Structures are given as structure tokens and as C-alpha cells.
Amino acid sequence: MTIIVTGGAGFIGSNFIFHMLSKHPTYRIVCLDKLTYAGNLSTLAPVMDSPHFRFVKADICDREAVDRLFEEEHPDIVVNFAAESHVDRSIEDPGIFLRTNILGTQVLMDACRQYGIGRYHQVSTDEVYGDLPLDRPDLFFTEETPIHTSSPYSASKAGADLLVLAYHRTYGLPVTISRCSNNYGPYHFPEKLIPLMIANCLNNKPLPVYGKGENVRDWLYVEDHCKAIDLIIHNGRVGEVYNIGGHNEMRNIDIVKLICHELGKPESLITYVTDRKGHDMRYAIDPTKIHRELGWLPETKFADGIQKTIAWYRNNREWWETILSGEYQNYYEKMYGNR
Ligand code: NAD
Ligand code: TDX
Asked: Residue 141 gets which letter from DSSP?
């Protein structure tokens, strides 16, 4: 069994590679990654020398490179994590989001059609459903909830999802799609809420909370997401969408306060800043389908997962300080300098 994992040098993709190599020791995992600002080869150091692993630096939009890899590897399965993934960046510059997230998906699926594939899996997001009101805690996203996007990022992910379903219906490509809620855990790029707040806390820097901090996200430990994808690519029904989420809704401000508390830092570090444009209020996933069909349930409770995550950032300062010391400084100044 050979699996091409695109975007495997990023947060969830790298965790997925670690999971697959340990859970399926006979599989060959080939990581294709462009190594954008979000990709980090040092993350993959523990598996780089494994005879079951190969890393290839390439852009999923580069048809020649993708075709060459398919000719060399004859993959059975492709799992597409590669994407521009940060909502705030998509508000500043949507173009690269449309290119990578939509056109890159097309290139990968064209190669799957040309060379044949057992399964093409698209890693999507709950953000394609838009948001839910704060005063309707009874509402959840199901797989039937209409697509209704808010940001250029979520619109690009939704565009890709529609294309994936079109390739299934039109060409019979054996596809599956998963739509997961917010992940957290090791190797999360420090531009995202949880790792940014941990890193800033550890450096005694202000903690920039957008708006009033009342927005709600449904947090899932990254390993639980990886296990769900593992189940879907093996046992999920072709042509189907599976929602993944842990019924763990929390307000941003409560997460930030919890991180302060865990790290023994004062809440006075919290700074309320100008809200994100078009900011989604609440995400909440109904994961009944994946539970009923595939037996998936989240295993890590938030109280444990956040402790493990904070411990990881404490013990792996070099990983994130290297990021903070580079180009990220310009990004941070641009995003938060005058906010
Ligand atoms: P990430 O930004 O940490 O990693 C993205 C990876 O893709 C990086 O390694 C980057 O180098 C690579 N990449 C980007 N453009 C590429 C291109 N053109 N060709 C090849 N590689 C490219 O993202 P993440 O948080 O790990 O998210 C992975 C996937 O999961 C994305 O598709 C995202 O939309 C989805 N998702 C993320 C979350 C979350 O909470 N992080 C939740 C649901 C779904
Ligand atoms: O500095 C910040 N301050 C703040 O208040 C940042 C970076 C974020 N926030 C808020 C915005 C959101 O309400 O925290 C919440 C979470 O923000 P992000 O970490 O940027 O995640 P989100 O916008 O919810 O999107 C994430 O989940 C779905 C991932 O980045 C996406 O890739 C995934 O599809």
C-alpha cells in the first residue's frame, strides 16, 4: 500500500504521517510538500530515514511534478492536506488560496484519473458551512447543511469540495471528503490561536483577542482527526462526506484565559484588538455519521489535550522560536502592529 500525503510538512499532515507509519508499519508513505512558510522539514526529521517514507518537495499545482511522482510511485491512495490554511492571510491576499486550494486539487485529481487510484481523499473543513448564531446552541453542522462560506479561505475550500464531488459524479473518481472542526496539538503553526497564545504567553507578550473573544470554535485534538481520516480512507463509502468534530465548543476568551492560567501568566496580558473581517461566530459539528458508520469517537478530552499541547510547546521551544525569528516577524508586524 502506497499513500501520497500532500502537505505533510504542515501541522495536521505531519501528525497524520506519524500516525500512519506507526499504525500501518508496512505501508509506504510519500509526502509531497511545497514547503511554503507553513511547511517545516524539521518536523519530519524523526521519519526522514525510515525505509517506508519518502519526501518530495513539489507544488501540487505543478502538473509535471505531480505526474512524475504518480509514475514513480503508483499510489493506491492520495490524501490531500496541502492548502493555504490561515483565514487572516486569505483576507489579505486571496489569490494564492484559490490557486493552491482549488487548482492544486484539480491537478491532483487529474493525475488520479490518468494513473488510476483506489481512493482520493480531500481534507476539508467545517468552515465551508459558514457559521451558526451564538443564541442557537441547539444547531449543529451536519453533512446536509448547505455550503455558505464567509472568507476567501473557506470559499476556496468549498470550491475544492464541489470540484471533488464533480469528479466523482462525472468521471467516477473514487473520492471521500472529511470536514473537520478546529484542530490543536503539536506542530501547530504559531499564527493560529492556540499556539500563538502559548508562544506569546511564554514570551510575556500581549495576547491579541479579536473583538470581544466571544466567538466559539469546536476544538479537536489533532491525533483524533488523523485517526478519523485513517478510518475513512479504509472503510468510508466512496462519494461521501464525513464531518469530524468532538462536541467541544469553547469561546476564544475562555481558551486564552485557560492558557494564561496553565502557564501561570496574568490575564492582564490579554489585549482586545480589532475584529477579523467577516468573523464567523460559532462552529459546531454533528459527528453522528462517522460515529454510526465507522465507529469513530474522539479519544482525547480537551483538558488532557491542552495540557499535552502546552507541555509540547514548552519542551520544543526551538521548533517554534525558529519560526518566530524568521519571516514571521514581518507577518506579525503587518497583522498586529496597528490593530
Ligand atoms: P498548515 O498550513 O499547517 O500546512 C499546510 C501544508 O501544505 C504546509 O506544509 C505547506 O508547505 C503545504 N502546502 C501549501 N501549499 C502547497 C502547495 N501548493 N503544494 C504543496 N504543498 C503545499 O495546514 P494544516 O492546519 O495542517 O491544515 C491541513 C489541511 O487541513 C488543510 O487543507 C486545511 O484546510 C485542513 N483543515 C485544517 C484545520 C485546522 O484546524 N488546522 C481544520 C480542518 C481542516
Ligand atoms: O490572534 C488571534 N486572535 C484571535 O482572537 C488569532 C490568530 C485568532 N483569533 C480568533 C479567531 C477565531 O475566532 O481565534 C479563533 C481561531 O482562529 P484561528 O486559529 O485562525 O482558526 P480559524 O479561523 O477558526 O480556522 C481554523 O479552523 C478551521 C484553521 O486555521 C483552518 O485551517 C480550519 O479550516
From this structure: B
Which of the following is catalytic: 126, 131, 218, 224?
A: 126
Say if CB 29 and CB 65 are below 8 A apart. no
What's residue 116's pLDDT? 96
pTM: 0.98
| CA dist 292 → 56, 243, 296 (Å) | 37, 12, 8
- d(CA 127, CA 148) in angstroms, rounded, equals 9
C-beta of 13 in contact with ligand 1 (< 6 A)? yes
267-288: per-residue pLDDT in tens?
999 999 999 999 999 999 999 9
Catalytic site includes residue 167: no
Q: For helices 302-315 and 252-263, what crossing angle results, to 10°? A: 50
Q: Which three cell numbers, joined as nine digits, stand for 335?
A: 497583522
Whether the CB of 39 sits within 6 Å of ligand 1: yes
Q: Hey, what amino acid is at 9?
A: A
- 172: cell is 467516477
Residue 31 alpha carbon to ligand 1 centre in Å:
13
Phi, psi of 30 (to 5 degrees): -115, 120
328 catalytic, yes or no? no
In this predicted model, what pLDDT tens digit does every residue of 47-106 receive, in sequence order?
999 999 999 999 999 999 999 999 999 999 999 999 999 999 999 999 999 999 999 999
Is the four-CA dihedral 127, 129, 130, 133 of positive or negative sign?
A: negative
Active-site residue flag, 191: no
Contacts of 58 (CB under 8 A, 6+ apart): 32, 33, 34, 65, 66, 69
